[in-house]
Structures are given as structure tokens and as C-alpha cells.
Design goal:
Helix content is 81%, strand content 0%. With 154 residues, it is an all-alpha fold.
């Protein structure tokens, strides 16, 4: 008797088994990829938010640094102006001091100048003495007579 054929279950079953394994692998890989994608998206959004905060902070820093720079430039200009004014005043004071110093501070005379001045002074005193001697000879007369208030006899 011929053998009865039974349903060939082995080949169909093994193909279905392989397909179920593939489906299972695909499902787990899909879940894993979706999880990684979700994590990457969260990371991206977090980094984007951090970058926005950092950008805002840096923009504010730039704003404040620009204001500070302008303020420092203004202060530097004022200081330079003050320095120029002080230098001008200093130069005027030094000029005035030089003029006053020439007038007020005694300069030592040279020996020749002092000698000539002393000789001129001595010569002037000798002339004055000679003049006084000549004039006193005429002025001093002896008075003849006697007492004070007495009548002068002719």
C-alpha cells in the first residue's frame, strides 16, 4: 500500500518560525532604534535649550561689556583732558617760578665785580671826605669875643 502522505508540516513551520524570529528581531531593533532616537531627540532639545541660554547670556555679556567699554573710553578721555589741563597749569606755574626765581634768588657776585664796586665806593667816600674837608675849612671860624649875649664891641 502506498504510503499516505501526511501534511508536510516541517518546512512550513520552519519558515513561519524564521519569519516570527525576524519579526521579533525587527520589533526589538525598532524599539531599540526608537528609544535611541527619542534619547537623541531629548539630548538635542536639551542642548538646543542650553545653547539658547548660553547665547542669551553671552549677548547680555556683550551688551554690558560694550557699555562698560564706552564708559571706560569716556573716563579715559576725561582723564586725558584733566592731564592736559594739569600739564598746561604746571607749565604756566614753572614759567612763573622761573621769572620769580630770577628776581628773588640772589646770584653770587664774581670777585672782580665786588672788587670794582668796593673800589668805586672807596673812591666816592674819598671824594666826599675831601669835599667835607674843603667846606668845613670855610664853615668853621673862630668866634672872637666873649660871653654869650654880650654886646659886640665895635
Amino acid at each position: 500500500a502506498p504510503e499516505k502522505h501526511s501534511k508536510a508540516l516541517g518546512a512550513g513551520q520552519s519558515i513561519i518560525g524564521i519569519l516570527e524570529v525576524c519579526e521579533s528581531d525587527l520589533a526589538s531593533n525598532l524599539a531599540e532604534e526608537e528609544s535611541e532616537e527619542s534619547d537623541a531627540q531629548d539630548e538635542y532639545e536639551k542642548m538646543t535649550q542650553d545653547n539658547k541660554v548660553t547665547k542669551t547670556t553671552k549677548d547680555q555679556d556683550v551688551k554690558y561689556k560694550t557699555q562698560e567699554s564706552k564708559s571706560l573710553d569716556k573716563t579715559a578721555a576725561e582723564i586725558l583732558s584733566d592731564r592736559d589741563t594739569a600739564n598746561t597749569e604746571y607749565a604756566a606755574v614753572m614759567d612763573y617760578y622761573a621769572k620769580i626765581k630770577d628776581r628773588c634768588i640772589a646770584k653770587p657776585e664774581t670777585f672782580e665785580t665786588r672788587k670794582a664796586r668796593r673800589e668805586a665806593e672807596i673812591e666816592g667816600l674819598k671824594q666826599a671826605l675831601a669835599t667835607l674837608k674843603d667846606e668845613t675849612a670855610f664853615v668853621q671860624r673862630k668866634r672872637r669875643g666873649g660871653l654869650r649875649g654880650a654886646a659886640i664891641a665895635p
